[in-house]
Design brief:
60s Ribosomal Protein L30, Chain: A, homodimer, PurM-like_N (chains A, B), Phosphoribosyl-aminoimidazole Synthetase, Chain A, domain 2, alpha+beta, five-stranded mixed beta sheet, 3 domains, PurM-like_N_sf (chains A, B), 9 helices, Hydrogenase expression/formation protein HypE (chains A, B), globular, 346 residues, 14 strands, HypE (chains A, B)
């Protein structure tokens, strides 16, 4: 909760630290205290993962993401898959089906051409799966020791269907909170391969494009309130961001949050909380109660939503705060993470 | 001419070298041999600096660029100015007025927050000057030693006006080649500060947004054939790319190419050819002869085109080749540069 309640700690922190890229409170501070004032933008909620813009009579979602994941290849995917699905999913969270992507490479001198080719092929395959076209690109090279193999930025545009208006500000008490499946998988997959840990079974990243799942949900009703893909900072960061922006309280039934046993075990060993671990192929939806059962059924009928469940609801109490009801009947506050437990997971 | 005539030298070069980011033949090889096949795109001309796409009934230009310039601040600008103007100009070369930008930062752990703030402020100021809005962003942080202070990607979208269709394929013999002003300035400005060289006068980067100048030109006639901002690889790379894509020959009057004396002197000292040095606020236009005088007059009436001049013409002879007529009456071939004389100038 630091960024929302304390005075400007950024000013006491004269240098960038890893946490500024973690998607938690420190990232929010950087945006709120440096970028938004500098760009003279539309206020604190202006510089979001995905912007809705009007141009030439069309209502578009426009999004950007840079990818610096280590290692470049991991169980279940690669930086190329992430680079496509990350931006496709940001657009999907605006209700848009991704249409066109850009691709900017920053390569480090000395990286093998073969590695670049494998990454590019993974991007191409992911783009075909997601039904999106890479139409413009750029490549820069930096001297050996001034980069880290391959960094990728993708940006994307997609059309927002009429009647769709997904914003945290639309969330109201009574809304039902649904997640599309197991949480914590991507972060644990990266951690296990990076640290050379083995947990009996190989945990594969859940990296996937969510445009089709979102379309299936919007076919039930365009009146969903907000969607988020809980990447950096995990489910906890997404829920806190929505509670804060909507001024509502959120109650999560901890037992209802789906965590696969291998992920739970790995988290226990590593001292991680699955609520804070990144996902790359999951979404959390805030749905008006009247539509919740139908939306849930539509999600379960889609391969990427087969394990969707309701995990909580929006309440009048404790505005701006996320609370979990524990298995033992107690409650605990689910804070906005400060930085990221696990840097460079995307 | 290497990339257009020789068999696949990329395969003999198993690792990325600086030249792959130089905007010359090696960059083209990377795109043609790795990225275009991997992305399964629309062929060799598909992955351009700026793509024209249809979405929701609107015809948009969509472009991306990453910026890795060293140093971050230089006479006449900063990486922030480049990041905004570079993408604004790529869109302008499609005839589009930039409307919205995205901004992706990759920060190195340990960089001063003050530096990030100065860069962001420069971006904000440049965006206001160019009349474009930064609407979506992303920040990643990499460990100290795995980045280089600040890398920025910007992507942008803008509306292409009806009747405007700027493509090298439209170039025909008889077209007049016009540059909007002095060439070689940005590259020499970066080089002088990076190498601590002094040339009597400080040479400032020409970094500027070209959307207004392009609008003034299109107001004369929407029937311009192609526009390019000769950045990496300089005027030589832009002219070669157009000659190759259009299958025409280009003849340049060497004496007509405007090179300010301080830039000419610096190039002489450094062994650089101003035709190959990057610009960041200049454009080269291919204009039907019938409109050339009027377009030139419109350019000269604009502050960023005050020194515009005709430098050559398109011919039937030597298709795909650029030839310069020298001051002494001879001719020389102006090759596509292989890599870049001066890496990381943008």
């Amino acid at each position: 909760m630091l960024s929302w309640t304390c005075p400007a700690p950024l000013r006491d922190q004269p240098r960038v630290v890893m946490g500024h890229g973690g998607g938690g409170a420190m990232s929010a501070e950087l945006v709120e205290q440096i970028f938004t004032p500098a760009f003279g933008g539309p206020g604190p909620s202006g510089l979001t993962d995905s912007a809705a813009v009007e141009i030439g009579g069309a209502r578009l979602a426009f999004s950007t993401d840079s990818f610096v994941v280590r290692p470049l290849f991991f169980p279940g995917g690669s930086i190329g898959d992430l680079a496509v699905n990350g931006t496709v999913n940001d657009l999907a969270m605006s209700g848009a089906r991704a249409a066109y992507l850009s691709c900017g490479f920053i390569l480090e001198e000395g990286v093998a051409i073969d590695v670049v080719e494998r990454v590019a092929r993974a991007m191409g395959a992911a783009a075909r799966t997601a039904g999106v076209e890479v139409v413009t690109g750029d490549t820069k090279v930096v001297e050996s020791g001034h980069g880290d193999g391959v960094f990728i930025n993708t940006s994307g545009i997609g059309l927002i269907p009429p009647g769709v208006d997904l914003r945290p500000e639309r969330v109201v008490p009574g809304d039902v909170v649904i997640v599309s499946g197991a949480v914590g998988v991507h972060g644990v997959a990266i951690m296990s391969v990076r640290e050379g840990l083995e947990f009996g079974v190989e945990i594969e990243s859940d990296c996937a494009p969510l445009g089709g799942l979102v379309e299936a949900m919007l076919a039930v009703t365009p009146d969903l309130h907000v969607l988020r893909d809980p990447t950096r900072g995990g489910l906890a960061a997404s829920l806190n961001e929505i509670a804060s922006a909507s001024g509502t309280g959120i109650v999560v039934q901890e037992r209802a949050v789906p965590v696969p046993p291998p992920v739970a075990n790995a988290c226990a060993v590593l001292g991680l909380d699955p609520m804070y671990v990144a996902n790359e192929g999951k979404l959390v939806a805030f749905v008006p109660r009247a539509h919740a059962e139908q939306v849930l059924a539509a999600m379960r009928a889609h391969p990427l939503g087969a394990d969707a469940v309701m995990i909580g609801e929006v309440v009048d109490a404790h505005p701006g705060m996320v609370v979990a009801r524990t298995a033992l009947g107690g409650t605990r506050v689910v804070d906005l993470p400060l930085g990221e437990q696990l840097p460079r997971i995307c």
